[in-house]
Design a protein that fits this description.
There is one protein chain. By secondary structure, the chain is an alpha+beta fold. Among the domains are: about 120 residues, Uridine Diphospho-n-acetylenolpyruvylglucosamine Reductase, domain 3; about 140 residues, no CATH class; about 100 residues, Alpha-Beta Plaits, CATH 3.30.70; about 40 residues, no CATH class. Helix 8 packs across helix 14 and helix 15 packs antiparallel against helix 18. The longest helix has 21 residues. The protein is globular and about 80 Å long. The C terminus is likely disordered. The structure holds flavin-adenine dinucleotide and 2-acetamido-2-deoxy-beta-D-glucopyranose (11 copies).
Length: about 625
Amino acid sequence: MRFLTALLLLLQILRVGGKYFPYERVQLSESDVVARANLKFGKTSGQATNSSSNCKTYPGDTDWPSLTDWGNFNDTLGGALIKTVPPAWPCHNGPFGTYDAGKCSSVKSMFSNSSFHMNDPASIMSSWASGSACPPEPSAPCTIDGYPVYVVNATTVKQIQLAVNFARNNNIRFVIKNTGHEFNGKSTGAGSLSVWVHHLKSFEYIPAVTIGNYSGKAARVGTGLQAFDLYPLMNASNITLLSPGGDTVGAYGGYMQGGGHSVISPLFGLGADQPLSMQVVTADGRFVTADPQTNSDLFWAMRGGGGSTFGVMTSAVVKALPVTSFASLSIAFNAGLDTSAISVEAFWEGVRAYFKDILRQAEVNTYGLFVINTPTTSQSFSMSLKMIVPRMTVSELTQFMSPFLSELKALGINASLANSLQHHNSFADYGFHQLTTSGIGDRIGNTRYSSRLFPKENFEPDTLVFNQTFDAIKAVVQAGYQIIGDAVAPTLQSAGYPDNAVNPAWRKAVLHATAIYAFPTNYTAAMIKEQHDRLDSLVRTWRELSPGAGSYLNEADIQEPDWQSSFYGSNYPRLLKVKEKWDPNGVFYATTGVGSEAWEVRASGGLPTQNGRLCRANTGNGTYGV
Ligand SMILES: Cc1cc2nc3c(=O)[nH]c(=O)nc-3n(C[C@H](O)[C@H](O)[C@H](O)COP(=O)(O)OP(=O)(O)OC[C@H]3O[C@@H](n4cnc5c(N)ncnc54)[C@H](O)[C@@H]3O)c2cc1C
Ligand SMILES: *[C@@H]1O[C@H](CO)[C@@H](O)[C@H](O)[C@H]1NC(C)=O
Ligand SMILES: *[C@@H]1O[C@H](CO)[C@@H](O)[C@H](O)[C@H]1NC(C)=O
Ligand SMILES: *[C@@H]1O[C@H](CO)[C@@H](O)[C@H](O)[C@H]1NC(C)=O
Ligand SMILES: *[C@@H]1O[C@H](CO)[C@@H](O)[C@H](O)[C@H]1NC(C)=O
Ligand SMILES: *[C@@H]1O[C@H](CO)[C@@H](O)[C@H](O)[C@H]1NC(C)=O
Ligand SMILES: *[C@@H]1O[C@H](CO)[C@@H](O)[C@H](O)[C@H]1NC(C)=O
Ligand SMILES: *[C@@H]1O[C@H](CO)[C@@H](O)[C@H](O)[C@H]1NC(C)=O
Ligand SMILES: *[C@@H]1O[C@H](CO)[C@@H](O)[C@H](O)[C@H]1NC(C)=O
Ligand SMILES: *[C@@H]1O[C@H](CO)[C@@H](O)[C@H](O)[C@H]1NC(C)=O
Ligand SMILES: *[C@@H]1O[C@H](CO)[C@@H](O)[C@H](O)[C@H]1NC(C)=O
Ligand SMILES: *[C@@H]1O[C@H](CO)[C@@H](O)[C@H](O)[C@H]1NC(C)=O
């Protein structure tokens, strides 16, 4: 009997734990680094080293590693070190090559396509945040500026450990890039060594696992997997995996670690609610497991506490969720744009009717995604709404929507659903449909945000605060900004009551409202500063109308006031303790990340960008050098 138990235990260990993916079995050992001072492991966590410098070292500094050092480092990596070349180099005569009209025009045409940047070792999508070092504009300069200097194209854990050790021992700024979707420059940085985790895409379906309170199906996922990678994998194993709405967004990098809302969040919570266990390279260069039993503080923090802060995650075991069907529909109406246009008054009454329906829709686990735009400078407005509702047929959804549709009809809005109703057998099917209609590659570009996680109280119809909330959102559109709203309620109940670091504001939210402004590659700092400040004065009203609510750190204003409580809520003090324990010397840095108030980027250009030295805060001329 005891023998049988032991055997079963062994089988369990072998099955689940193959524990590592093959790329994680290649690890750095003490003997590898015994004779290499700049590659040695860090002291055990908790012991700060004595750094005499207030700033990270920078190219040109005397203590910046020599070319020989970099070459030796590259050898230990097996040749995986890449020297950054800005992808828009063909648009410029300069250090990276000579102007090539054909190549330049093709770069230009792809520069607003996420596929292009996700496949580049260093480029980010919202390039303003790097200081726009090399835009696809021949008239602009092209420099390395806010890009990392070198990138490790990681295909093994050992390479990541070597990179962390090399950066820490040489006092070099360290960056992690997965896809480069992040809006505020958290996946880039001047004078840095970056690790690119994009190619860590392994996958394994685990039919049964017991970890912590969870027993059931699971999957082991490489940190580089993107939403579009997951649809066929879900389909093949007849499971559901929570993933982002944008097909090229990484499902297990900054998205998951910072929260991660999804079409299926009303049923299953957020991305951060999915991991059962993680594998992480920590600031001392060691490779550890973080789960409910082992390093549980790290495990808690890395589920909601933000990317690039506590360690480099290489893989996770996540819940494999049941397959459910969905019905979906779209509605669009506008004022002043085409032959179906209605009056401006009727337009806003239509939006109000939708806002009044949000709580009713939340009761059936709807994910509502809407965009309100003012596409021209005149009195023209457009609203498009997509609703995705689980476990309903198309006719049930039609019936459910009929009170709302009657209200729209009474306003003269053509609310015919004829062409938009769809049924999907699974979340994977929904994803396939999205891919076949849009291709792999979201449209992206220079984008800034401001956002608010509005709780239920703001959306109780017929209350004063409802009216005020409606008016405050309307005012932002009237001022020329785009609103993207995710009407989603990832409650603690939907998430299965996990103990993790997700911003508590998410658990009460019924609408993640974002105000967005995008700008061309030839922007000026003054133009953005004006747009930012004007929006901020309007969003102040959003904050006043939802006291104690927060903002979603992954789709937010980098200049959000009191960001510690807005992005992390009551978790902030505990998160800071975890940060101090696991990264006492600040190996990892992300702007507005936990503990980042101890640092500043001495940026140039007058905007809060990453194109400057990273230094201890309060030793220079203010956070952003302005
Ligand atoms: C088109 C588009 C659609 C989006 N859709 C959604 C959506 O549906 N839901 C939603 O919640 N958000 C969405 N977002 C926002 C998204 O959550 C953030 O952009 C997020 O930062 C992307 O994470 P990433 O790993 O793909 O990107 P990256 O920019 O590569 O990384 C983001 C941050 O995570 C860190 N990081 C990455 N990998 C790791 C790792 N392995 N270990 C530790 N740190 C790591 C990086 O250093 C950086 O700080 C969308 C963004 C865009 C541009
Ligand atoms: C840190 O380094 C400085 C300069 O080298 C030295 O004066 C100081 O005593 C050191 N402090 C500790 C705690 O080792
Ligand atoms: C690293 O080594 C590889 C293989 O030898 C080489 O192709 C690459 O250019 C080197 N990287 C750098 C930055 O020198
Ligand atoms: C990075 O590594 C992957 C996997 O080995 C390889 O396919 C890719 O070409 C490399 N990319 C660059 C830019 O070196
Ligand atoms: C999903 O899987 C089913 C059954 O395995 C298969 O018939 C179907 O074609 C798959 N769908 C897609 C879009 O690949
Ligand atoms: C897929 O899983 C669902 C439950 O999640 C189950 O009802 C269904 O029978 C499964 N389909 C196949 C083909 O295994
Ligand atoms: C209403 O919208 C539907 C679907 O978009 C369209 O087919 C129909 O022609 C429209 N009707 C009118 C009167 O505009
Ligand atoms: C982006 O590029 C990819 C790959 O080339 C393509 O499939 C996709 O359609 C493009 N997307 C857009 C919005 O242009
Ligand atoms: C809210 O606004 C509507 C429409 O303007 C108005 O009819 C209603 O009385 C207002 N309700 C409250 C509580 O202010
Ligand atoms: C497990 O469940 C208990 C009781 O519901 C809860 O207190 C605990 O936080 C849960 N543990 C984890 C790791 O989620
Ligand atoms: C940017 O370029 C557009 C034309 O492509 C031009 O109309 C606009 O004035 C330029 N803006 C600035 C700030 O240079
Ligand atoms: C602070 O700003 C002044 C004037 O702009 C400049 O001369 C000085 O070097 C700056 N100091 C630091 C530490 O950056």
